[in-house]
Write the structure tokens for this entry.
Amino acid sequence: MGWTYAEIALIALAAMASPTTLSFCVLAVVVGNRPKRTGLWFYAGAFSATLAVGVVAAFVLGGRAASDDPSQPKTWVAIFDVVAAVALVVWMVWLLRRPPNPDKVAGMVEQMGRIADSPAVAIVGAGAALANPGGFIPIALKAISETDPNAGQYIGLWLLFTVVALLPLAVALIMLTVAQERTMRWLHAARDWLIHNARKVAAALVLLLAASLLHDGIAGLVNT
């Protein structure tokens, strides 16, 4: 069971390092004239949308993925782990083989520029759509369900997952409140660094997660 909690933490870290999500989170506070306003509403949208998924899952999914014997997961869980592992590896190989696309980066900056000047409700919607953990959500839902939680425990674990997945944006907002000018210089530099290196950081975490899922999935299928 302890390894399941470690896997949940790894999923959250991989979601946090997802290049697209991380880039949009940084752009949310470096594009526009009111970075704290844009970043706060963007965070609110991403946080509330992600949290809502977990609250629903707490009552719909619950502990359905849990097994009486933690060392022998249910067959459908083992199959899910193998499929998810393969999908993560394929996605990361595809991502690493693609060179940085200046046009795509410019498009993201332009998109966030329009969002930054929009009403608060539009920024909230953009945060919900662009900064959620995406494909890591079903993996996290399954992993938390494997702990056989009650509804309150499920929501608590999902809350931790949500906080970690969106941690870079939360930290940026805190830093903007403490020292805005210095933070803005740091964030502009971080944006340039992310364009060239975010995929490498994400690759290490995603491949580690894929290896964990593949190991669990194969072991589960062999022991079935």
